[in-house]
Amino acid sequence: MTTYSGITRRKVQVQSNFERYAFLFMRLSGIALLILAVGHMMIQHVLNDVHSLTLQYVADQWASWGWKVYDMLLLFIALPHGINGLRNVLEDYVHGESAIKTLNTVMAIFLIVSLIGAGFAIASF
Amino acid sequence: MSSLLLTLRESVRYRGRGGHYSWIAHRLAGLGILAFLVIHVWETAMVNYNPPVYEYAIAVFKHPLFGLGEIGLMGAVLFHAFNGIRITLLDFKPEWWRHQAKTVTIVWALFLVVFVPIAIYMLSSIISHCGHGSNCWAFPTYPVS
Amino acid sequence: MQAQLRIRRYNPEKDQAGYWGEYTLNDVNPNDSVLDLLHRVKWEIDGTLALRRSCAHGVCGSDAFRINGANMLACKTLVNRLGDGDMIKVQVEPILGLKVLKDLIVDMEPFMDHYKSVMPYFINDDPPPENGRERLQSIEDRARFDDTTKCILCAACTSSCPSFWANDKYVGPAAIVNAHRFIFDSRDKAPEKRLAVVGDTFGVWRCRTNFNCTNACPREIEITKAIAEVKNVLYTGEI
Amino acid sequence: MPKIHTFDAVIVGAGGAGLMAALYASRSANVAVLSKLYPTRSHTGAAQGGIGAALANMEEDSWEWHSYDTVKGSDYLADQDAVDVLTKEAINTVVELEHMGLPFDRFPNGKISQRRFGGHTNKDTGKPVMRACHAADRTGHMILQTLYQQCIKNEVNFFDEFHVVDLIRVDDTVRGVVAIEIATGEFHIFHSKAVMFATGGWGRVWEVTSNAHSLTGDGPAIALRRGIPLQDMEFFQFHPTGIYKLGILITEGVRGEGGVLINSEGERFMAKEEYAPNIKDLASRDVVSRAIYLEVKAGRGINGQKYVHLDVTPETVNHYYELDGEDRRIDREYIEAKLPDIADFTRTYLGVDPVKEPMPVQPTAHYGMGGIPTDVNGRVLLDAQKTVLPGFYAAGEVACVSVHGANRLGTNSLTDLVVFGKLAGVDMAEYCQNAELLPLPDGAADEVMAEFERIRNNTGGVKAHEVRRKMQESMTENVSVFRTKETMDKAIADLKELREAYQKVSIEDKGKVFNSDLLEAWELGCLLDTAEVTAVSGLARPESRGAHARDDYTERDDENWLKHTLYHKEGDGYRLDYKEVTLGRYEPKPRVY
Ligand SMILES: Cc1cc2nc3c(=O)[nH]c(=O)nc-3n(C[C@H](O)[C@H](O)[C@H](O)COP(=O)(O)OP(=O)(O)OC[C@H]3O[C@@H](n4cnc5c(N)ncnc54)[C@H](O)[C@@H]3O)c2cc1C
Ligand code: HEM
Ligand code: SF4
Ligand code: F3S
Ligand code: FES
Fold it and tell me: I need a labelling partner for D158 at 20 to 30 A (CA). Which of A116, B45, C94, D125 fits?
């Protein structure tokens, strides 16, 4: 008897769209945030608690390139992750086409302004 | 609007299993962290743009209520992080879905194991700061001297 | 034993809004199904109660209701699964996210429209084998989509999904299950067309891996797994 | 005023037969499919074990053998020309289903997987043969889904949840049907050149049944009321293995995979000389049902109750394989893979795990061999001379071609649906090309609307479900696996009383929207009609043949009774008439398994 076995693998052309990237971004940024955000929380909120936090402390940290990069990464990953998460939530509950457009625009602007504003604050310190 | 309220109400009323409550917790935690993050980003940026505002902000953060909030934040980040990793792993490894009920338990267990000691530690540090005789309940005035 | 039923009632010809009907049944057998109880209410107490049912053993998909808070088939839920003791409380409501037409009956059309949107039919225009016989398929290839062939379109899954409650434009787990059925069938030639639908804004990306669907499915289809497999095809471009 | 729709043809019923017909007819005609259920909820979806076709994918087989088994299974009452059409066409049609995407299980050689089933044999050796093409134990589900999917692809017009309540017949023409839109309670008239009934079975006449609540004999009852005879209604199949008390079917595939029936003494009783010493548990259904009945009657039911055990645990199965000298062995995984739904049913409803424990089973009302008489093209026949009623078609369980005769072989119903559904669909489309749309008579829906008004406003105080229950009890008691003159007389008397009670049935729901109270009451009328035809036809046949087994006439009587019964309703009474059986290659001889 001839046998006929095995799994057929097939290549397909998939159209990409924003949601697909957003979805992937949420997962990949999530993995990065596990280190960055949890690390940040541990260092800044547990090991050094808020009572030892001073202007000088921040200034000292940002004097080092390492911390600058760390905080910059955190900012540039966590904020888009969070804002996109908020977008997901809002798109669940807000159905009007124009309403959601307006909200998305506001969130995008807010995101860009925040990234530039806060990013500049870190970079130029 | 009524449909939004209905949705929210039924999301709580629906008798789902682990995954359902993890989803609620993940969503709430994510939104909570975001709210804090937005404040935190701008407040920290003030180190550069407007130091007195920054000083005032960290003074406010030393208030025990904010201390409790900080513990909450810690919990939110930890749960959201672990659960986020769970979702990511299972998304990329569909064959692990068989164990989904277990993964929910594992995430909660891991969360408790990590969070409880940290929470106790953080709580004790709040208490110890209030124990110095200073009136830790009073809000600071602006600008901080 | 005794059963106390709370059934969500609504008659568009009479009522402004829904209300709870309360009924008590005696001599209930722990092996009775919830469908049996509903029949008893309808036949012995109130003939106006409206519900859909047909096969009475979990294969036709007519009677998905929300029973004691979660979606299941009334005919496949035995009283003994809801609790024991001399008195048992059973609460039955229509499934969520679809318009209630009367009592436990909801409008299935939006659900069916989502189902149809994924082109849930075999597409292969190549001429069949010359010997006039079946196309061959390996046992392994057949096994890849076995789980998703079981769907009976009961809507228990889609109507248990918070993403669907929130926004009914989401195609929902049932439609994705049926897309999966064909995407993973090695004989089918149109996976790309289906992927374009389920990969769109209101496709798989609305799934928040909540798992209510998998838990609700009376056919025990691993729905969330199927959804993840479809997502993976969308990431990798390989089936 | 009812809303009027116009189509070339109307198909009533969206099970396997209706959908197959729709698929073919809609290629050239404008067709509407009306169904009281969403199509995918039709009871074809419940069919488990398989669809018979001599594909010979694993071992030698031929359609002639399949014909022989079918004829023998039918106790020689089947029309052999029709049987040949069935078994020959089965092969192409099953392949065609595969081409439509139907996900059959596969053999290691990549071909459609087949298994053994009751009554299917190798004609040379008399041994069981693998002929049942299957997809696990949900073959019917796959057929129903696949056909519905293809209908969506081909944009067939569906009217879902439209309950057909009358056929519009004027002399010897049909002009459409009357239906109630369940969601609104409105009446609609579907005006057409041709009408097909594919409304399935009527197993709800009995108490313990494998049939859905919706299988209430609407089709046969409407036909009867419109002057069309019903054929061979005394032959109703009791499937040997229904779940005890619930009637949920345990497919013959269980025995095809090696399962055996065991009585309270631990005997595999089917092997006894008086039952089926050769193919044992895989004998024809009527034979096995009777054996179970007799075992129980002799006090060998399990725990003295009315059931026996069906055992498919690997230990038992392998034990008997060894005794029978077979090489085959099975294990737990195999059972789980081949019979997943059965395992699910017994776990859900009995808390019994079939790979570890035997299942309690008893015969369950299952399948009507009789129905609306048709030829092989689905054209409805009015009398013993086979006069065609032009434009009226029937297919599926509701039709009687007759390929099942006095007892249907397992897997042959699904074959019947797709083969004759297709042939009927093709013929009907052709008919529509040449036929004219005849005008609707005045007040086409008046009569049935008046009947519904009567039920809606009746104040007799009798509850429909009580009448139904009494009918089911009486039929189960008196017209089941075995019957006698006495029991059938009793049933007929009971039915007369119940019919009077039916005139007093009143309902509580006076509304229009989804008024199932009203529709269930009307369905009860159909059930009573079909029950009566069954009992009357049975009483008139003083012999035992296939599913019609009489304690007072235990022998088959080919000399006088090798003929089909035709029951005509006439006024308030009836007239019985008989039709020749078409014989062929296989001469009637005693049936031994
Ligand atoms: C549990 C079970 C297992 C079975 N297993 C097998 C098997 O393994 N192999 C096999 O060959 N056979 C099997 N059979 C038999 C076979 O499945 C049935 O005989 C067959 O499916 C009947 O198909 P159908 O198309 O005639 O009717 P159905 O599938 O019953 O469909 C009837 C259709 O008619 C519609 N309808 C009825 N009345 C009305 C009305 N008044 N107005 C509008 N619409 C109406 C219904 O909505 C439905 O769409 C099994 C049967 C059962 C019950
Ligand atoms: C610490 C590591 C983190 C991980 C592993 C992580 C992971 C994820 C993942 C995988 C999702 C997608 C969930 C889904 O689609 O169902 C998500 C959603 C979200 N995340 Fe995070 N995240 C992390 C940190 C953060 C931070 C710091 C914020 C706040 C800024 C945040 C805010 C959100 C929000 C608002 C959502 C949307 C929630 C929803 O859709 O229900 N996350 N997160
Ligand atoms: S996937 Fe399961 S729950 Fe969803 S419709 Fe199909 S059978 Fe029902
Ligand atoms: S419930 Fe909804 S969120 Fe995904 S896992 Fe199921 S579709
Ligand atoms: S009645 Fe068919 S699934 Fe419940």
Answer: C94
C130: CATH = 1.10.1060.10
ipTM of the complex: 0.94
- For residue A16, what pLDDT is reported? 83
Is the pLDDT at A50 greater than 80? The verdict is no
Task: State whether the beta carbon of C204 lies less than 6 angstroms from ligand 5.
Answer: no
Q: If you write DSSP's letter for every residue of C103-156 in order, what string do you get?
A: TTEE--HHHHHHHHHT--S----SPPPTTS-PPP--HHHHHHTTGGGG-----T
Is the minimum CB–CB distance between C127 and chain D shorter than 8 Å?
A: no
Question: The domain containing residue C98 runs over which residues?
Answer: 2-105
Output the 3-class SS for D385-401: CCCEEEEEEECHHHEEC
**D276-279: long-range contacts at Cβ-Cβ below 8 A with a sequence spacing of 24 or more?**
D276/D592, D276/D593, D278/D126, D278/D592, D278/D593, D279/D119, D279/D121, D279/D126, D279/D127, D279/D128, D279/D593
pLDDT digits (tens, 9 = 90+) for C171-224: 999 999 999 999 999 999 999 999 999 999 999 999 999 999 999 999 999 999
Domain B2-130 fold is 3 helical TM bundles of succinate and fumarate reductases (1.20.1300)
- For C222, phi then psi, to 5°, come to -80, 80
Q: How far is the CA of C224 from the centre of ligand 2 (A)?
A: 19
Rounded distance from Cα D397 to ligand 5 centre (Å): 21
Q: What is the pLDDT of residue B133?
A: 60
Whether residue C232 sits in one domain with residue C167: yes
C-alpha distances out from residue D539 to D287, D479, D483, Å: 21, 10, 9
Q: What per-residue confidence (pLDDT) applies to B145?
A: 62
pLDDT in tens, D91-136: 999 999 999 999 999 999 999 999 999 899 999 998 999 999 999 9
φ, ψ for residue C107, nearest 5 deg: -80, 115
CA distance C127 to chain D (A): 10
> What pLDDT is stored for residue B1 in this prediction?
47
D288-314: pLDDT as tens digits? 999 999 999 999 999 999 999 999 999
Span C19-64, pLDDT tens digits = 999 999 999 999 999 999 999 999 999 999 999 999 999 999 999 9
Confidence of residue D370 (pLDDT cuts 50, 70, 90): very high
User: Of C105, C136, C164, which residue sits at a domain end?
Assistant: C105
Instruction: Look at C135 and D509 and tell me if their CB atoms are within 8 Å.
Output: no
- Whether D322 has a pLDDT exceeding 60, the answer reads yes
Cβ neighbours of A24 in C, within 8 Å: 235
Q: Are residues C69 and C149 in the same domain?
A: no
- Return the HEC string of D259-312: CEEECCCCCCHHHCCCCCCCCHHHCCHHHHHHHHHHHHHCCCCHHHCCCEEEEC
**Contact assignment for B94 to C228 by CB distance below 8 Å:** yes
Does residue C10 sit in the same domain as residue C52? yes
Q: What is the pLDDT of residues A84-93, one digit of tens each?
A: 999 999 999 9
Angstrom distance (rounded) from CA D86 to CA D233: 21
- C64 with C129, same domain: the answer is no
> Of the residues A23, A25, A33, A86, which should be mutated to test ligand 2's pocket, given the most ligand atoms within 8 Å of the CB?
A33
Residue nearest to atom 8 of ligand 3 (CA): C154
Residues C46 and C87 in one domain: yes
Relative to beta strand D563-570, strand D399-400 is unpaired
Fold of A2-124: 3 helical TM bundles of succinate and fumarate reductases (1.20.1300)
Could you tell which of C146, C148, C217 is best to mutate to test the pocket of ligand 3, judged by most ligand atoms within 8 Å of the CB? C217
Domain range summary for chain A, segments of one domain joined by +: 2-124
Q: Which residues of C touch B16 (CB under 8 A)?
A: 70, 160, 210-212, 215
Q: What is the DSSP letter of C204?
A: G
